[in-house]
Automatic annotation (TrEMBL):
Gene: cbiB
Functional note: Converts cobyric acid to cobinamide by the addition of aminopropanol on the F carboxylic group.
HAMAP family the UniProt entry points to: CobD_CbiB
UniProt keyword list: Cell membrane, Cobalamin biosynthesis, Membrane, Transmembrane, Transmembrane helix
Identification of the protein by name: Cobalamin biosynthesis protein CobD
């Protein structure tokens, strides 16, 4: 299983998910999203009371995970009996991590700031974060981009690869289903506070190992980056991670902030409402520039290389056992 994750990470790192393929057939996340939308429309009835909507949300999550895992398991078995089946399986698995697209979206923010200034940077960062872009100055734009890089490295790269290593294509696909459900219905809006409760809690649970591993990878990557500090990264994680509003996002954000000597998170505005939050990397520089985005990207690339190497080592150890 870790061998599959190892090769999937390498393929996605190099090629990403081709635009022409997305235009033709979509992406596994878009297929999963359509199923979630159908379940939400059909089972999240506003006439039901809170408890009933929560129960239906639990059932919807179970159906989503069951359908996704079963489809992926069937695809895996079919692919393995076809000519060049292992290669086809790796290509299918490579659709689950998002190293290349994450890097390109974050890099686009730095490029926009360089070419078009603050307004262009706000527009670029609005594509990857949910906070109000018109209220962001340049430092806040950079902070938002780096936070997105740190959190999505955990959620979009490490976690699907980890669960693929544990459960093969079905494990990785089931993780993507749960994570997509959290992003679509796992928020505290009047419509989804009850129905999305199970998706949000389950996503917190399954992202726990990846968030800790991501923090460790950022700490290790800091050894290879000029002016980065592994020691500060460790101290930031131990001091700040538990104070984040998310039980998981604080780990990679604190590690990246400490490693680079910057401050992430803190107060921000969503939908016109100010959210008070503690800084990750407390005492680090709060006034960030596009150069900090580029340094964060360099740290993430090294961490990604370490992740691939780790999975290759685990695959070799299992192969030798």
């Amino acid at each position: 299983m870790f061998l599959l994750a190892f090769f999937a990470l390498i393929v996605e790192r190099i090629f990403g998910y081709p635009d022409w393929l997305f235009r033709r057939i979509g992406h596994p996340v878009t297929w999963i999203g359509k199923l979630i939308s159908r379940l939400d429309a059909g089972w999240n009835r506003e006439t039901d009371d809170f408890a009933a909507r929560r129960r239906m949300g639990v059932l919807a999550l179970a159906v989503l995970l069951g359908v996704t895992a079963a489809a992926a398991l069937m695809a895996e078995r079919v692919l393995l009996v076809l000519p060049f089946g292992p290669i086809l399986l790796v290509l299918a698995a490579a659709s689950l991590p998002a190293q290349k697209s994450l890097e390109s979206h974050v890099e686009a923010v730095a490029d926009a700031l360089r070419k078009g200034g603050l307004e262009a940077g706000r527009k670029a960062v609005s594509m990857i974060v949910g906070r109000d872009p018109e209220k962001l100055d340049e430092a806040a734009v950079c902070r938002a981009a780096i936070e997105s890089l740190a959190e999505n490295f955990s959620d979009g790269v490490v976690a699907p690869a980890f669960w693929m290593g544990v459960g093969g294509l079905a494990g990785g696909a089931a993780y993507k289903a749960a994570n997509t459900a959290d992003s679509m219905i796992g928020h505290r809006s009047p419509r989804h506070e009850a129905f999305g409760w199970a998706a949000a809690r389950f996503d917190d649970l399954i992202n726990l190992p990846a968030s800790r591993l991501s923090a460790l990878l950022f700490v290790m990557a800091a050894f290879f980056i000029d002016r980065a500090s592994p020691g500060n990264a460790i101290r930031a994680v131990l001091r700040d991670a538990r104070h984040h509003r998310s039980p998981n996002a604080g780990w990679p954000e604190a590690a990246m902030a400490g490693a680079l000597g910057i401050a992430l998170a803190g107060p921000r505005s969503y939908g016109g409402q100010m959210i008070e939050a503690r800084f990750m990397g407390e005492g680090g520089r709060p006034e960030l520039t596009r150069d900090d985005i580029l340094r964060a990207l360099k740290l993430a690339r090294v961490a990604d290389g370490l992740l691939i190497g780790l999975f290759g080592l685990l695959a070799w150890i299992i192969w030798q056992a």
